[in-house]
Fold these 3 entries.
Entry 1:
Amino acid sequence: MLQVVGLAEQAALPHRLQDVLRHPILGSLLPQAGYAAMGEVGPRPGEPIGLLLNALTLGALIAYALFDLALTEPRRTRWKAWALAAIIATAVVLPTVKLILLREGSGPASYTHDGGVIQTEATIQYLLAGKNPYTEDYVDTPMAEWGFSEYRTALYHYPYLPWTFIFSAPFYLLGQAVGFYDQRIVYLLLFATMLPAAAKLAEGAAFRLALVAVLALNPIMALDVIFGQNDVFVLAWIVFALAAWRTALQRRSAGQDGGRWLALSALCFGLACASKPTAWFLAPFYGLL
């Protein structure tokens, strides 16, 4: 798992080693003798499951390099794709699942991002209760417990646009039906859907693998997914818009109608703009396509 330092880490990961060891699922993944053999775990991330995921990621990375050097096409691309999928799983997906489990066992204000998860879940609850998330405050939600007393954030306003919680509301209802919900489940689903769509934007196997690796494994986006910041949400809709636009061009080149795909592209980009203002800066460039 990627290393995190600073205020956010102190606020969201207060007792991760102890919480991992006593968690009913995470604590049972390794034998007690294995935990004892590690001694005083450090440096950060400093807990056995994180170190195990680091080792698995390194192993998958070495396998990727060996496949690239030793195999020939088409086996090379196929096995490199599997190795890349393993890297993404052990470096991003499984660390996210780990923090979701730790949060479930430690409380809603722990092991997560404040606005992207805690407050977004609260806005969904307000929406389903018929309340306006933009006029309600968040002083009686887990947002008031996140961080330190001198660093409380966004208790009196919701800083994001509505598509994030509107899209997530059905997943929240499904989670309530099964007895468990974490906003990062939605982000992981979009993350997993976005990467195959992004691969369609590049020509050639090497460029497709490179694009997927850059989107999935750059430290900014990987940490966003793990802690539940909502940048992956807006990025996914931008990628969907570009993938639909490319499909429209391909259909036109083949003499087929691409109008519906262009409409879908515009819709997806509009939804990105309705998710977070960061997408607005791309609007002039999207208009030039």
Note: Residues 113-181 form one domain.
Entry 2:
Amino acid sequence: MFEVLTGTGLAASAGLNAYIPLLTMGLLARYTDLIDLPSGWQWLGNGWVVAILAVLLTVEVVADKVPVLDHVNDVVQTVVRPTAGGLAFGAGSTSETVTVSDPSSFFSSNDWVPVVTGVLIALGVHLLKSAARPVINATTAGFGAPVASTAEDATSVVVSLAAIILPVLVLAFLLGLVAFTVWFLRRRRDRRRERQAARAAGYRV
């Protein structure tokens, strides 16, 4: 079921940047034959919608690269990114693409399922991103923020395109995401233990 991978990739991409997957679908639907949005989602290809998404993306790209401001942006995006993920999964999983000629009727007849699924996927990725960013800022004195943000934006673009053109590649992204999550959680646990040991030894941390 490639449509599941398409929806998953787009929703995960929204967890990194809310507007990239929506804008990607809108542009590809409007100017190419790579994706054919179903009737309920064709508004994504509307010129005004594309323009608004482009403006919002510009604001997001700038705000996410400034230390402190990126944290404020992440708080605001806690609502926006999951919502975008729901829209992205809903639209992507019911669209005809170069690899999906007949989307599953399950998603078409149960509209709430892909939307809720997309919300949960995007929320999970967003929470991981939001938890990692303060650590990056603290360990790099803020200089890592624009680098991390640029990498996240690039990943969002690549995953969005892959989800539509070659969704099997989404599996590689998901495996990488799981590996990063495991590493990050272990790293946080180790740092917590180190701080506790330092306090026990009488050091101020």
Note: Strands lie at 35-36, 96-97.
Entry 3:
Amino acid sequence: MGGWYPWNSHLKGKRLIIMHIGNEDGFVEAAGDVFESNFKGDYHDYLNTERFEKWFENNLPKLGDNSVVVVDDAPHHSRRQEITPTTSWKKVDIQDWLRSKEIHFDEDEVTIELLKKVKETKSKFQTYAVDELAKRYNVEVLRLPPHHCELNAIELVWAEVKWHVARNNASFKLKDVKKLLLEGLQNVTAEKWRDCVQYVAKEGDEFYDRIDEIIDTTIDSLVLNVDDSDSACSDFESEDSYSSVDDNR
């Protein structure tokens, strides 16, 4: 979900930003939002949370019950429903927050002690805003590990669309780029989407198999090191005991 057409120097800093969503049946009908930006930084900085969440909520009813939406860790996907206290907060504000959550504390506790209570309980209150929106429509949000966009099918779809634009872009005028962009979206068939989803599903299985293998190897290594350490310790104690006996003779 989400995407963008990269800025090109010929467009004098302008770029097109895309938000869309799709599945094995193709792009969700009338879900796309393409808009223009003059912002020269990372598109994540321009695509603000408010705009994304509004678009997301408008399209949730189109997805159907028990749908799963795959997202990465982009800032506009990751706004917390509630802000929790940090070291920059005043003591009285931390106390007010704890009271609002019915978390017991003593009035004479210092700030560091209050923050410890916050740390122990804040996970209960740090839900993501888009996750809560999705729950209203019986939709689940699946968050990918950081830096693993290859596990999201839409990244493959965007690559196809961008290739269409790059291959046919002759004028570098924004209106022509937008036309090519819309053509590229139209050219992505349901069959293409299915291929991308199936490919990513396979990649996901292999990814988590590798994770399991790494975990198993690490655990085996730890067990081996502990066993070696115990053995060395036993040998040392045995030799020390023998020496003591020898000294007593």
Note: The chain has eight helices and seven strands.
